[in-house]
Structure formats: structure tokens, C-alpha cells
Specification:
A four-stranded antiparallel sheet has the order 1-2-3-4, with helices on one face. Strands 5-6-7 form a three-stranded antiparallel sheet. By secondary structure, the protein is of the alpha+beta class. The chain is built from four helices and seven strands; from the N terminus they run E-E-E-E-H-E-E-E-H-H-H. The protein is elongated. About 5% of the residues have low confidence.
């Protein structure tokens, strides 16, 4: 039976997949429809290999982890009862693979940003390759939580607005106490109109005729 192998090379990573055409699905002779094995070589790490489910587990954690890194949020992926896990460490990323064999300790691989980027390029090239007609599971990208969105903003920028607002409020209050209010004595005097006298003595028409 015809065996096919395709390889995807980057500077720090090399991914190779082996498989067979699935003629029942109408695939051609040069199309892998049944994945039989894969091998991943990362610089400074032992070669990784496994079956299709192991490769799918690798995709399921690396893709969302990288998406969060691009978004400025660092959080582990697949760390609970998952065959493949990745989490941020000081200055890099730690990829951990748990063997299905008992009494075999997990394999830990330290990656820097360039290693992670090359691994992503290899996986992305495999998923977009028309020569590999395998229905990979859909990677569900959950939206960032409100807390994660807030944590994306540096602490200084988060505190700047309330601090500057409080300072402005204090300054306005101090200025209100220092600047005197306009004095009432400075107002122009109001002109008064003297009402005509109604004293009967002063009225000539009311004078005593005997005088």
C-alpha cells in the first residue's frame, strides 16, 4: 500500500507526518486521508512522536495558548488531566507531555518565543495543507474574560486615571477655599428716588386763610 510522508520545516522546529490515502473518501494517490504517525523535532529537545490523538492534543493547547499570548494574557492551557500542557515560565514557555505508559515521568520542554512561533508555523502549515485531508477538530477560542481584559492594561495606566482625577479634585477644592468671594461693599450704590411729601402743612393749598 502507498505510504505518504510530508514534512514542514522551520528554523527551530520540524514536523513530519506519515499516512495513507483514503480511497473510500475519493482522495487521490498523493493525499493523506489516514494519519498513521507523526514526528516533531524541536531544537534542544528529544524527538516527539505519537498517533493522531496525540497530535490533536498538541494542537488543542498550543493554538489557544499562543492566541492568549498575542492578546497580552499569559495563562496555562491543558494543565488538568490532559496529555499535553503548556504554561508560561520565566522568560519562556514550558511544554509538558504526559506519557500514556505507567511509571513514565512527563517530558518537559522549555521553549522561547522563537521556538513557540516556529512550532505554530509547522502546525498551521499542516492544517492548511491540501495534501493532508484530515478533519482536524475545531479549536474553540473562548473570549477573554473581563478580568483578563483589565489585566492587559499595565498597572500604571490603570491607576493613572483615578489618581489624576483625585489630584484634580483636591486642587479645585483648595482653590475654592483660597480665592475670596466678591465683597458686597464693592457693589455700586442703588439710586433712591425720594417720594413727594404729603405733609398738609407744606402744601400751599392747605394754608390757613386767616393768615
Amino acid at each position: 500500500m502507498l505510504k505518504l510522508s510530508y514534512r514542514y520545516d522551520q528554523t527551530a522546529a520540524r514536523l513530519e507526518v506519515d499516512g495513507l490515502p483514503d480511497f473510500s473518501s475519493g482522495h487521490g494517490d498523493s493525499v493523506i486521508g489516514i494519519l498513521s504517525a507523526w514526528r516533531l523535532q524541536l531544537v534542544g529537545a528529544p524527538e516527539l512522536e505519537g498517533k493522531r490523538d496525540h497530535l490533536e492534543a498538541l494542537m488543542a493547547v498550543v493554538f489557544p495558548y499562543a492566541r492568549h499570548q498575542i492578546s497580552g494574557v499569559s495563562r496555562p492551557e491543558g494543565w488538568s488531566h490532559h496529555p499535553v500542557s503548556i504554561r508560561p515560565v520565566d522568560g519562556g514557555h514550558q511544554l509538558e507531555l504526559t506519557s500514556s505508559q505507567p511509571d513514565v515521568p512527563p517530558l518537559e520542554i522549555k521553549l522561547d518565543d522563537a521556538d513557540l512561533a516556529d512550532l505554530l508555523r509547522c502546525l498551521d502549515a499542516l492544517c492548511s495543507d491540501d495534501r493532508v485531508a484530515i478533519p482536524w477538530p475545531e479549536i474553540i477560542n473562548h473570549p477573554l474574560s473581563r478580568r483578563e481584559l483589565v489585566e492587559r492594561v499595565p498597572l500604571v495606566r490603570r491607576l493613572a486615571a483615578p489618581v489624576f482625577g483625585g489630584v484634580a479634585l483636591v486642587v479645585v477644592g483648595v482653590m475654592a477655599m483660597v480665592v475670596p468671594l466678591p465683597s458686597q461693599e464693592n457693589k455700586a450704590p442703588t439710586d433712591s428716588v425720594e417720594a413727594p411729601s404729603t405733609d398738609p402743612v407744606s402744601d400751599p393749598s392747605q394754608a390757613d386763610p386767616s393768615r
